[in-house]
Specification:
The chain has about 120 residues and is mostly beta strands. Helix content is about 0%, strand content about 50%. It contains no helices and 11 strands. Strands 2, 4, 5, 6, 9, 10 and 11 form a 7-stranded mixed sheet that branches. A 4-stranded antiparallel sheet has the order 1-3-8-7, with no helix packed on it. A hairpin with a 5-residue loop joins strand 5 and strand 6. It starts with a strand and ends with a strand.
């Protein structure tokens, strides 16, 4: 089974930037889609970004133009570059492995992102 470990979260001021990393192990990384989701207190988990094994990328409307997902298959790592951060971006961010279709089969433990003055 694939194991995922997120890192890079923290406290940042509005307008600032963070880069999240997700290191994967347990399978051949390059064959899987990878994605990021987030969950704020009291909210349901929401989709943020997805990058397919072939490189196709999708973003939630709320982050399009500000966030960028990328992957380094040689390092078994997926990234989420977050720019122009807003307080409403505050959430726990989770990395996930894509399954068949638009499904997710494995999740990391999450990393906290707090955007506040």
């Amino acid at each position: 089974q694939v194991q995922l470990v997120e890192s890079g979260g923290g406290l940042v001021q509005p307008g600032g930037s963070l880069r999240l990393s997700c290191a994967a192990s347990g399978s051949i990384f390059g064959f899987y889609a990878m994605g990021w989701h987030r969950q704020a207190p009291g909210n349901e988990r929401e989709f943020v970004a997805r990058i397919a094994s072939g490189g196709t990328i999708d973003y939630a409307d709320s982050v399009a133009g500000r966030f960028a997902i990328s992957r380094d298959n040689a390092k078994n790592t997926v990234y989420l570059q977050m720019n122009s951060l807003k307080p409403e971006d505050t959430a726990v961010y989770y990395c996930a492995v894509g399954g068949r279709g638009n499904t997710w089969t494995r999740w990391g433990q999450g990393t906290q992102v707090t955007v506040s003055s």
